[in-house]
Amino acid sequence: MCGPSDDIPELDFVYADADSLEREVSELYSFTELPEFALNQQVSRAELYSFTELPEFALNQQHYSDAVSELGLDVRWPDMSEAQRTTVLLSLVDKVELARRDDRLRASRAILYISQGCWGDLHTPDEVQSWARRNALLLYKCGVLPVLIDILNLEIESGTAPVTAVRKLAVSVADSSDLRVLLSVLYLMVEQMRHVRDSDPPEEVRLRDAFTQELGQPQDTGELLAVSLLGMVSRFCSGAAPHFPMKKVLLLTWKVLLLTLGGSDQLRRLRTAARAAAGLPDVPEDTVERTRTMRASSPPPAPVEQLVDAVFGPQRPRFTRSKVVNGDAMDAMNDSTDVAEEGGKSAEAGSGQPGQPDRSPPRCDSPRPETPVHHGRALPWKPKVHRRDIEEYLTVSRKKFVGFRLEDDLESMAGLPQPILEGRYILDKHLYRSLAEVQVEREEEISASPFSRPEQEVPQTPAELLFAGMLPNLPQYMIALLKVLLAAAPTSKTKSDSINILADTLPEEMPVSVLHSMKLGIDVNRQKEVIAKAVSAVLLLLLKHLKLNHVYQFEFVSQHLVFANCIPLVLKFFNQDTVQYVTAKNSLNLCSLGSISALDFPRCVLGPQVDLTSETLQLGDEQPYCWRNVFTSINLLRILNKLCKWKHSRIMMLVVFKSAPILKRSLRVKHAMMQVYTLKLLKMQTKYLGRQWRKSNMRTVSAIYSKVRHRLVDDWAFGNEVDARPWDYEAEERALRSKVDHFIARRYSPESLEELEPVDVSLSSVLAAPLELTPAFKANYRRWLEREVFQQSTDWDKLIEPGYMG
């Protein structure tokens, strides 16, 4: 249990699209795979790892050596010339395409060893990273990418491995050896290509752009690689392929999306370009960038502290060094000093004598005082106002002062007093029009005038191609991702019918010693953390890029996430000690190496290895937080914000599931960005929680006021809608779903709108249209004439009777 609120340290975590290259590569491998690396280096540690799987990675270096020997090359990889390395790789590519599975697997293992940097010939981690980057570029130049993708599709559709895995009582790491080799090579290539350096030569930049372009295009099967990987997740969750290594699949899915769609910087550039094309100014502030300069607030008191205050009375706070470092007390003192000084100056300026306030009543001809301007500390965000807020403001003002309403009129100001005009000026000054509003208005125009104002050709952006590829099975993909996230949640309990996401971590033989059990337990927790990190990153990337591409694509994905119970799932994820989760230390380090992780690649295979014993091992490292857990927590909060923002029915779900105490517990993590997104979720539901909740949580309300963007006409701080129910807003959700379904049908199912196509009513063109008669009709046309023409009597006089033609 956490200590007092002031004893929780502030985290120096910096949010980014991903962790460092070394950590991202190390998280690809589980501790269970380490003996394979150790045997590659021919270190005799069989006693320590006797419980693990067969040393399949020990064959990687052996197969590489065999391939080099067959070509008559007996030199180290760094000592080879570029032509010799190319010859080795082309020979391996030819072997990968052989019909025999064993030959393909041996060549794939040799390619994996090369993609890892040929660490057997190197001495330092920096050398391994440098050669891994060079080898990734060389692998792409030699055409390895399309070959590996074809082999991966072959393994996915293979029917023997799933049948074998289903028949086994427990699936282990040995059942996914082929897939793990292929996924590891692809992941290492994508991860190396994703990192850009200023010193990269033009040739590397050209290869990286070509690699990204190829990943974003459909394969020979017609599917994108990202869609194929999501299909693997769906098949795994359905039980059709329990041997799929989920951690590697999800990590590769995340990095493929991050490379093809783009990270935060690319998203910012795309948003600026899209707003400029729509005639809108750029967004004034970026939430991620602004929160990096903000300081975390002191968390609200824990329930134990509130109980102590209730029993013994509030304790007088002591002015300690920790409060000075934190700065909250100093901020409060500075704010009160600024207000006091301004109040004193205004009092002196308004009175005839120094220090005496002017209490004389204002005269009738005295001008109205102007709005005072505060020159102290400003709020971190510029307030925003929507067009509908201005419309509501003018409607209420006209009804009060003029007595009638003007629909869709924001220009007429006749009869309104000066204060109302000043308020209108302030609202116009902070008016913000989002790109989503422009897209919704354009969609309404297309629906109202499908012929006069049709949709132009849709740009085939990476996000558009991805959504079109995901659309046929998108609900299944979302459900599968949430199932995996539920299984990886630290608060979820193992059930008999739940999926086994640890299949690529568990060894064939369970450990028998305490040290082995400890290492396996840490590896299991680490596996769950990495999977949760990958799933949260995939969902956030999809929501961000689809919202920028078209808001109805974003709403389509959001609705399926909500239907799959994403909101209660995220709340269940946070229903724990969040401080303990973000500071978890599920890693093993050597006491002699300090913060160096002993079991992370490539340190686990370089230099002399120290035997891992209970005396030489320590849990965690010197870092006060776990990067991936903080990253996961922030991503899930951002997903929850995107799902619930401006959706009253979903906000009511937060209220019904009693999310306020769960989210307040997350405020105990002293990180500005995490607190901002948590406070946003609390602000959404404040007016539904009632006056008593605000009264007992004034510290949280003050934090919302000081850290979250304000809407000038929002009543979050004083509105009371405690009697609202989720079903009160079902009409709003149904209307949104109807618009989204119409958009999907119009853009992606043209056959459903055939009734809107114009009909040819010209008699001459219809008769002149070529008509091919069937052979059966030609053989029996005389019978048809006799039955349908000669034997039918027609009274033509009826045509001239009055009223016959209507």
UniProtKB/TrEMBL annotation:
All residue ranges annotated as the Far11/STRP C-terminal domain in the record: 417-781
Family per record: Belongs to the STRIP family.
Top-rank taxon: Eukaryota
GO BP: cytoskeleton organization
Organism: Amphibalanus amphitrite (Striped barnacle)
Chain spans, region Disordered: 286-305, 319-380
Basic and acidic residues bias locations: 360-373
Name this protein carries in UniProt: Striatin-interacting protein 1
A cellular component term, taken from the record's GO annotations: cytosol
Pfam families from the UniProt entry: DUF3402, N1221
Name of the encoding gene: STRIP1_1
Domain Far11/STRP N-terminal per the UniProt entry, residue ranges: 8-310
